[in-house]
Amino acid sequence: MSNTISRPSVRRAAAGRAGAGLRGERLAPYVLVAPAILVIVGLRLWPLLLGVNFSFTGDGERDGASVGLDNYADLFRDPLFQTALRNVGLLVLLLPIAVAIPGLLATFIYLRVPGHRFFRSVYFFPAVLSPVIVGAIFNLLLAFDGPVNAVLGSVGLGPIDWLGDPHVAMFAVVGVHVWATFGMALVVFLAGFATLDGALLDAARVDGASLPQTIWHVIIPGLSRTIQFVFVTTMIGMLTSMFGLLYVMTSGGPEGSTYLPEYYIWIQQGQMNRPALASAASTVLFVIMLVVGLLQLSLLRRAVKES
């Protein structure tokens, strides 16, 4: 009698342990990601919501008072912020070039061109330099009487006021930023190549495909997720990590032609003492990054499907 009673109890206990094990397995992923989620919510999402809320309050005499959309109206009437938005559009247009450069270089390194190990270290080296140091170096190189104009003069080309011409300065700063940061994107591309099926490349060689055909029909589809990641991170870097270069190389000049939203935010917060207006500009910058990022991902997915 005792045996017949104990066996069901043993089965129930075993079933209970199995159920607890299953529940533990289901909860394990949530427990593991919980710290990261708490950090994101506490240090990213919550401050973002506070900043959005703060953007609807006033500065100066109206400090803390609700002003509705007045800050946003002031933003879009400000010529400097209008210039910053135009420069954002320029960055979006130049973004494919900023991604294509490390992508092509990573392709050549992966295909083991002569000296590929040397080039890998050389290309990555600028990524470890401070933007202040990079800006100071290129201030000397791009000075009106600097080495770059000296080389141009030696081949019969007139000197260019790289940092003093409003129509040239933004291109110069963006070019320096791309040079200083593409090493990190190159490393990401090389990591993506590690997941690429080498048999596809061999098949392309056997079929006599040219390098452009191999890149378009094999490499780009095979690295679609890597390309999407590099596009988004490069865009975020161009919109939020150029302050050091702008501050050292042009200080927003000449004539405000190199203003970007992040530099405008610093001016309003740090020099003009208008934190609510700076919060409104930060909110606009966040919306721009979100919209541009989603559009880029959508276009990339469509391009990959067509290739």
From TrEMBL:
Annotated keywords: Cell membrane, Membrane, Sugar transport, Transmembrane, Transmembrane helix, Transport
Protein name, as recorded: Multiple sugar transport system permease protein
GO cellular component: a single term: plasma membrane
Domain ABC transmembrane type-1 positions: 80-296
Gene Ontology biological process terms in this record: transmembrane transport
Gene3D superfamilies attached to this UniProt entry: MetI-like (1.10.3720.10)
Localization, UniProt: Cell membrane
CDD domains given in the database record: TM_PBP2
Stretches that traverse the bilayer: 27-46, 88-111, 123-144, 168-196, 229-249, 276-300
Keyword Transmembrane: yes
UniProt family annotation: Belongs to the binding-protein-dependent transport system permease family.
Entries under InterPro entries matching the protein: ABC_transporter_permease (IPR051393), MetI-like (IPR000515), MetI-like_sf (IPR035906)
Membrane-related topology note: Multi-pass membrane protein
